[in-house]
Write a structure and sequence with these properties.
Layout: H1 2-30, E1 36-40, H2 47-63, E2 67-71, H3 78-85, E3 93-98, H4 100-108, E4 120-129, E5 131-136, H5 144-152, E6 158-162, H6 168-180, E7 184-188, H7 192-200, E8 206-210, H8 211-219, E9 223-228, H9 243-246, E10 254-261, H10 266-281, H11 283-291, E11 294-296, H12 301-322
Helix pairs in contact: 1-10, 2-10, 4-12, 6-12
Length: about 325
Amino acid sequence: MLLGSLRAALIGAICLFTAAQSTAVLAAETFPSRPITILVPFAAGGSSDVVMRLVSRQVSESIGRPIIIENKPGGAGNTAALVIKNAAPDGYTLMMGHTGSHAINATLYPDLKFDPVRDFMPIAPLISFNNVLIVPQESPVKSAAELVALAKSKPEGLTYGSQGVGTGGHLLGIILAKRTGIQLVHVPYRGGAPAIADLLGGQVQVIFDVLSESIEFIRAGRLRPLAVTTAVRSEALPDLPTVGDFLPGYETSAWFGVGAPRNTPAAIIDKLNKEINAGLADPRIKARFADLGAAVFMGSPTDFGKFMSEETEKWGKVVKFAGMKPQ
């Protein structure tokens, strides 16, 4: 009797597993059957918004279904990430993650209500890009060294804007202040676009912004770039020095990628990865990103997951060095 019961239980378990596999395969074969929503964790008009709309338009044409971009700023990506954590794992609600939401925040927020690695299924990386130190065209500052000298002459310091607490732009300002002994007063925004608007309007004196977001203002002569934060100069602005030329060892880059809720079927993840990589491989997309000062960053879900884990460890050390705290 006992042997028979064990055999029946084993057969039942195998049947359930087989049924689950069949359901997942069927879901992938029919996916997508309706519009897909991708949450962008910053305000409309910023670089993340532009990048995601460019890629999603290409993917939408390929899959024959609309892709809806929903801007959901807040908490440097935490607001959008919590929505994704609790969303149905069916491939229809995705998130554009970035350096802040899926690397920096893991260390910055001790009471984070999601795990950037465990609670998400990596789908595909999108781009990597430079951050750039910029001031209004009317500013007397012409270089990173002059900016530091000006800040040292003002006991109250200078105001600098960022895309929000916990973003790369926020952290870069803290590191610059720590390395040079200057005072920088942080003014967080809900994305790069409103930060640039206030920089142009004189409400803040300097920002670290992603180059893809500010390059058109630079080319139009409305903003003055002082330096890029990567180890090498940007191909989009080859005459612009690096911050590392002034402060050796000062080097960072940033990235965007797409993720899904945990337990999304692997077949759906693979299908989305294939479609996104195909879109990124399009010469028109590559050229547009290059024009924005960004580089296409392609890879498998496994590659992207490994990369995010490495980035979380790397930025965790930087956050601790900077003594950065959530505001």
